[in-house]
Structures are given as structure tokens and as C-alpha cells.
Amino acid sequence: LFKKAKDFQMPAIAMTDHGNIFGAIDFYQHAYKFGIKPIIGCELYVAPKTRFDRNSTGIGESSRHLVVLVKNMQGYRNLVKLTSAGYLEGFYYRPRVDKELLQRHHEGLIATSACLHGEIASFLLAGDREAAIRTAREYSEIFGEGNFYLEIMENGLPEQKKANAGLLELSRLLSLPLVATNDCHYRAADDAEAHDVLLCIQTGKTLDDRERMRFETDHFYLRSPEEMKQLFAYCPEAIENTVKIAEKCNLTLDFGQFHLPHFKLENGQTLDEHLEMLAKKGLERIFAHILTNDADAGLRAKYERRLREELSIIRSMGFAGYFLIVADFINYAKMKKIPVGPGRGSAAGSLVAYATGITDIDPIRYGLFFERFLNPDRKSMPDIDTDFCPEGRDEIIHYVTEKYGSDHVAQIITFRTMQAKAVIRDVGRAMNIPYAEVDAIAKMVPGVLNISLDEALNMEPRLKEEAKKNEKIEKLLTLSRLLEGLNRHSSTHAAGVVISDIPLVERVPLCKSPKDDVVTQFSMNDLQSAGLTKFDFLGLKTLTVIKNSLEMIEKGRGDEMNMDALPLNDGPTYDLLQRGDTDGIFQLESSGMKDILINMKPDCIEDLIALIALYRPGPMDMVPDFIARKIGKTKISYVVPELEPILKETYGIILYQEQVMQIANAIGNYSMAEADNLRKSMSKKITEVMDK
After folding, report:
1. Entry pTM
2. 3-state secondary structure of 658
3. Which residues pair with 42 in a beta bridge?
4. What is the distance between the terminal CA atoms of the chain, rounded to a whole angstrom?
């Protein structure tokens, strides 16, 4: 879209989805990358009476369309409130607002009368000229002088010609400005067929169905300025007004701020002081387990220094509140006997997280680095993913909602896109091709994560052969490639919850899930761009299995087991692993993993950590070399002596991202923050940063 707009030398472009602004942040950021001004807008559904009225005869009569465009931050905030109210208060078939809401939240918005489904055009088509005049005056009064336009189109529909004639007359009669638009549903005229298929997918129909929803012409594409000037030669001011509107719309969104929720303290301490107190208390509890005598003074000093350094970075970045919030809901779960995972991801590199009970992993014992979690050279929100027993997950979310307020907490929307195999099946269904034929084609797509259809066609020659042999399959693949990657439907993110410092509707638009939960209209990444804090409450069935097992052991044998006190050097456990008897053991139960266990013969916890890392998609080719070094078949050597203490536990192989950081620190004299920047550029394959 933006490439085409750039080719047309368009200075600005607006996006007005129906009833929502799901894509606003993504659209805004992409537009600026291409040097085009983004105009955020929405094609609102306006209820004929009030948004609370549910008495209309059907979907067509329940609402009329109205386009609104954002002029400034005030308009953006008002559009957020309008689209949220559409879902939370006015939903009936569709998310609806009413004129009372428009009156309340009109500032900073420009409105246009919309398409043939707009209220004014509908009255004109029904021959009710007086109602059209009355409605036009009403909208003009709501939005104020210069902020309401009558919208004309040239889309080849006979009804549009009739509506345009009426709109031109209204413009003269009421001195209201006209604006020429083209209702764009696809990029180019050639895409009309693919769009027709998309309509079938969305409505569950096939192309053969005569009664289905369809667009009557193929004119709903992004027209060039030249085409538009020719089409509207009879009304040049309507074309000029598109630029005038664009010049009035100047929204600037600031993506550099963080809006952390407020963690309330009653004792007069600051957040930094309270976190420091909790962390120091927690460290003393840790010392009770790891310090055995006075000779451990050096070890104590090492932990205390690390804690001071971490607290200093957290203080300088302003994230004490984040740690306190996470520690609070995790410790609440533990108090309620809801199993919590020991910690996952980069948060395990934080001693503060370990000391405050957020994780159960000693980062110093396992050589994990705080800078991988929070890098002082690169300010970004901390991200702590927490596993809970699924049976208790809802209770934790309820606790957080009660603590911070239901208007401050929401779950997060996620969008399912049409990926390679799925899009083939969807398009095949719409084309009414027998399922067995479509399924056979879909199964030819190689099972590679996030593979595109273009990549599949290059990797699997049979797909090209089938397309050559069969015209129907060629069309199936052509249409699938055009629709691939589009959003298919929305759902609620499995883990994400957002907590705001002020009522959420003051910061982001909201909607309702099919289960009637309040969810954000913005997805996870867009929320983070908007500076909001998301927390991951992951449900992990393994924790339920462990909980049930411990209860069975206690009930059957009378033994009360403590998971945190299990020895990590238990001989019979390693015998079981070396035999590959690992059915039902999290991350160790696949046939490939069993083969590695049998060949590698792990005999310590470090070996288990290594083999889980080895089994990931990237380093699979390291497995034979790693096993050969461990069992003594291959001699272990180090390029330079400084590498030995870093790579000893992985038999001379660079296996972990933390080792990359240590090597950069030891060999290149990088700070750990600089080393983390190197690590990140390697993991994301950013060549120009690596070259630097």
C-alpha cells in the first residue's frame, strides 16, 4: 500500500477500518517509514436511535456508516473512547456509537458522510430529501464549521450516481464542502478477484453461492491522483479538499515513553527503597542456604556487589515498580498454593528477581547476566514471563484486576494470519475444490516454521508441477499468494495481560472478546509501542502434573516432598534419563530428544541444560560434536586460554548467548551492556551492526 502511495506521490493516506482502530499503530509506524503522513481514522457504525437500543429489525437497519479522521491528539483520544464505547456499550451485530457520544467526543475530529451505507446517502436513495438535509445539518452542528464534509465517490454503481446528485445539491443548499474519495478494499484492480475470495472466507460462503455478499464492481482499489482528477472533473474542489483535509490532520504519537502501573505503598517508602529492602531481605534468606562457613566471605561479597549493581540500574531506568508488581502477584500465587514456574527467559539473569521471589534460579550459580534482561545502554521495558498452573491462572488475573482496578486491567487481542498451509485450505474451500485435492496440495508445503508460499514453491517442485498440470490448482496458488499473511480473525492472547497507570480507555482502545472479556484493540507489540506494560501469565500444564504428583505421593506414601529441595545429583534420575525413559517429561519426551539422551549420557544438571539448548532449531548440527567431546571421542581444545573458563561446561563449544557475552567481555574488553548489544545483533542476524 505505502509503496504504491509513494509511487503516486501521495503526501498522506488514511485508514478507516469498520468500527475499530486495530491497525492504527502498525499503520502509523509503516507510513512514517515510507515518508507518508498517516491519518488515523475509523468508519464508525452509528445507531439510528441510541447505542443502547436493540430493537432494529436486522443487521442492515442496526447502524449507518460515518467516517471520522483524527486531526490531533485530542481527536485521537476521542476516537479511542468512541471505538471503545462502540464495543463496550453499543454492540449489537456491530460495535455502534450514537450521536450523543459523537457530541461528547467530537473535538479534534473531521467527519465525512461515508459511502452508500452512510445515513445521508441512505435517505437520498430512499427519496427522503428532508431527512437527508436534517441529518447533514445535525452532523455539521456536532463537528463544527469546517469539520464535516459530504463524501462523493465514483465506483460504477448506479445508486452512487443518484446519491452523488443529491449530495451535490445538499452541498449547494447548506454550504457544506464536498470531498472526493475512493473506497479502497484492495491495492489494484487486478486484486478484485482475490478480494472476492476473501469475502467468501470471511462469510463462510463459496464463489458459486448466488446469494452471498459481493462487491458489484472492481473499482474498490487505490486509484492514482490522475484517475481521481479525471473522474471528478465535474467537481474539482472535491479533489482539492482531500489535500486540505490531509493538511488539517497532524497527529504525533510519542513512542518513547513508558506508562508503568502504580504500585501503592503505605509505609512512606519510595518504590526504590522498598525494592531494595525486599531484595536485601531475600538475599539473606539465600545466604542461609549457600554460605556454609566464614570462608565464604568472598562469595557473600560477590552476591552483595551484584545486587547493588542491579538495583542501581533498576533505579536509573525507573523500573522498581515493575519488579514490585511482578513479585507481588507471584508471591500471592505461592501464598495461595498455586504452582508457579521457576522462571523463564532473560529474567532468570536477575539476582533481584531471585531475591524477591520472582524466579527460583540463582543467576550467579548458572552464569546468567542481568544485562541480557535489562540493558542500561538500550532502554526497553523489562519482560518477565511467568508460568502458572492453568487451574490457578484465572485467580491470579482476578487478584491483579481487583488490586489495580477493572478499568486499569485488560487481556490483549491477537490476530491470526493466513499462513501458507491455512490460506491454501481457506481459498480451496471458497473455490469449492474438493477437500481431498486441497488437502493434498497443502500437505506439499514443507513443514518449516513461518514458511511463505514463494519459499514453498522454490523448495517443493511438486507444487509447481501440480500448478502446470491443473489450471484450477494454479489459480488456487495464485489467489493464495495474494491473500497470504492477511489477518484472518482476532482472538484473545493466551498469556498477555496489560495493566495501566490510568484507566485504559484513556490510553488505548478496547473491545470485547467472544467470551465477553474486555480486551485491547491493540496487539502486544503495538501496546508496547504505546508505552503500556504487559505481563505474561502463561498456563503450563506441567505445573499441574507436578502438583498432582506431589499430592498423590503425600496421600499414598505420607511423604511431603519439597520441589525446591530436590537434589540435582540424584543417580537413579540420571540412569532413567540415560535410558531415554522420558515419556511425559517436559521438553525431554520427543523421539529425537530421547536419542540424544541415550547417546549423550547426561550425568549432571549442566548436561541437561546443554541438551535442551542443543535441541533448538539453530544449533542442531552441533549435537554430534558435543556428544563426541563429552564422551571423550574428540579432544577438547580452546583457541585462546581465556576461553577455557567460559566454555569448559559445554566442552569447548559456544552454545549459549551468555557465552557470546562473556567472550566479548573477556577477549574484546566490552562492557556487559555492549556485549549484550553484540549478542542481540547476532541473534537477530543484523549484519550491519555485527560488522560494526
Report:
1. 0.87
2. helix
3. 17, 68
4. 33
